[in-house]
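User: Good morning. I'm curious how D-glutamic acid would be positioned relative to this chain. Could you predict the structure with it bound?
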Amino acid sequence: MKTLGIFDSGVGGLTVLREIVARGSAYDRIVYFGDTGRVPYGTRSRETIIRYSRQDVRFLLSRGADEIIVACGTASANALDELKASFPQPITGVIDVSAEAAVAATKNGRIGVIGTAATIKSGVYPRKLKALSPSVEVFGQACPLLVPLAEYGFAERGNQIARLTCAHYLGGLKEKGIDTLILGCTHFPLFSGMIGEYLGPGVRLINSGAELARRLASPRAGTPALEFYVSDDPAGFCADAAIFLGAEHPVSASLTDIAAYPAD
Ligand code: DGL
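Assistant: Good morning! Here's the predicted structure, ligand included:
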């Protein structure tokens, strides 16, 4: 029995789970933890994100996880190295796979990255991208408003508020002539259609969850048992899950006291 643990600051990581479930993997069981009591992570300091992430990993290990996926872009950007140093189990974030896919995709060497404020501030994407290909130019843009817009169901293609918000955030990147854009936040794949329309067909969008799922995909693709835990409001999580995981996967979630898990 092989168990994968996945955590995110809340419901957004379900976009990553969705890709993993769709592509199939070698796991018999997947345990998902959404830190709904402390979301968002994207506005918090690096120190806080590290403390929260350590507790999240400890919780997943207590539920039998053999490996951990950090689905949260913000936690991957700010806490992955510390998590790897703290735990012997394999822990994978979304940054490396996205950076590798972006470097492989770009033709003109101009790569945009969008994420939460904490992800962009971490500087992890320019570091990783330039380590892979020193000549690339990287343009980062924090897009914090897209997070609540997705959670309030504003990500449908025709939504004018979301379209204006995308144009507001992406105008500068468009002017820079990027040909590749990393969607560096769990929520942003929901806006792929809208972002693609705004930037045009010449810009390749990199979906971190899809890249990760591609790496995990296994010919031994069974249907894993899914378990969901949250740190607050399980009913709210289950209601929002349809947006992020898809209505075809009904979700029931249990409450856990994340504060009971050590943060150091
Ligand atoms: N899950 C977060 C991320 O991918 C977005 C929500 C938050 O700010 O916590 O960065």
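The CA atoms of residues 103 and 129 lie 7 Å apart. The chain is about 45% helix and 20% strand.
Let me know if you'd like a different ligand tried.
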